[in-house]
Amino acid sequence: MMKINKYWWKDYFDEIYLITDARSVCDERLTRKEVKLLREILRLKKEDTILDLCGGQGRHSLELARLGYKKLTVLDSSDYLIRLGRKLARKKRLAVNFILADARSIPIGSHHYSAIFMMANSFGYFLNEDENCKILKEAGRLLKKGGKLLLDLCSADYVKRNLVPVSWHMANNDIIVCRKRKIEKDIVKAQEIVLSKRRGLLRDGHYCEKLYDENKIKRLFKKAKLKNIKVRKRLNLHKNKTDYGFMTSRMFVTATK
Prior knowledge:
By secondary structure, the chain is an alpha/beta fold. The protein has helices at 9-12, 15-20, 22-25, 28-42, 59-66, 79-92, 129-142, 156-162, 214-223; strands at 49-53, 71-76, 97-100, 113-118, 143-154, 166-170, 175-184, 187-196, 200-210, 227-235, 250-256. It has a 7-stranded mixed β-sheet with strand order 3-2-1-4-5-11-10, with helices on both faces. Strands 6-7-8-9 form a 4-stranded antiparallel β-sheet.
């Protein structure tokens, strides 16, 4: 049995993560495509107050700011990614607010945001489902009446049918990534080994991701007292038809306060 530290996410999202997952989280074309969908599905207006929850370096919010949106906040628990986001915002002269915080307990007053989104499979990191639900409840607390939430998840059905137990890919000319995966009770547990041709072993760590089908995520949304739940399935936003792990086939779940 693969043992996962329940706090694995505290040290995972750093400069190595931006290399190993660059084909998704550093792809500007993909980000623009995702933002186009966000704007359409959430019907975002320039005057909306928007929270990019667990937003990392804020790639979606930076793109929205470039398009003229003014009231943008990125919240994430990674100090490295928050500092990087602030640096990018200054460099591009874009007005985006960055907050370092835990999504289960957000230091912001209730009924503050018109729209909240959580992109790139940033949900389901906790083995204890109550901890995952806390994030949805916090999002609900922060939304104004009639405000909208969008959650971007991997497709549980797709992952179960297509999970590759062992995969290798070249992240760049120097970095090789090996991932070993298995499913245990609707949880994908993975070991990630990152090797540098020049520097040797960079990472040998473990992480996990809960899998949600349509019915399961709807029950969780209802538990968080969110309504008008809609699910868009089988979204493949990458340009090339290849294996992008959890990002290959995606599910957008929306709800209102």
